[in-house]
């Protein structure tokens, strides 16, 4: 499949599995799952036909592994702006995690820490390179270092999504190392 088509399908899935399922008549279960056939039918009925092979390829090839298919169902791995319970257990994080952002947000981050904004969780990266890519989506990236081990020891829960993204409810400013 050509890259443009793959990106278009991935963005379509993100919109309807993470943010606005009702727009095409989907109802996700409490864990964010929907039957693959239901998704394909709804997309087709709303003028965006996706073949089963295209869907499987987008899920398999997506470099961020944003989606999961199990038992004939599909869901987004994280990033929801609608309430879902991904059923992810609390796990001990590595000592350090990273967050990619841009400079214009640093004043608020210094004051409030990292907040989920319109998502359910703050997304943290396991390595600096991933955080750079994330931050680059909005401009010149700034990488923040999160003292995840200390934060966890202080009682803040961490979860890890199926694609390796670390999730936290909030990262208070005291756990962040910010650029000067």
TrEMBL record:
SUPFAM superfamilies: ADP-ribosylation. Keywords: NAD, Transferase. One of its GO terms (biological process) is tRNA splicing, via endonucleolytic cleavage and ligation. Gene3D superfamilies: 3.20.170.30, RNA 2'-phosphotransferase, Tpt1/KptA family, N-terminal domain (1.10.10.970). The keyword NAD applies. Its EC number is 2.7.1.-. It is an enzyme of class 2 (transferase). GO terms for molecular function: NAD+ poly-ADP-ribosyltransferase activity; tRNA 2'-phosphotransferase activity. InterPro entries: Ptrans_KptA/Tpt1, RNA_2'-PTrans_C, RNA_2'-PTrans_KptA, RNA_2'-PTrans_N. It comes from the Bacteria. HAMAP family: KptA. Removes the 2'-phosphate from RNA via an intermediate in which the phosphate is ADP-ribosylated by NAD followed by a presumed transesterification to release the RNA and generate ADP-ribose 1''-2''-cyclic phosphate (APPR>P). May function as an ADP-ribosylase. Belongs to the KptA/TPT1 family. This is Probable RNA 2'-phosphotransferase. It comes from Nonomuraea solani. The lineage of its organism: Bacteria, Bacillati, Actinomycetota, Actinomycetes, Streptosporangiales.
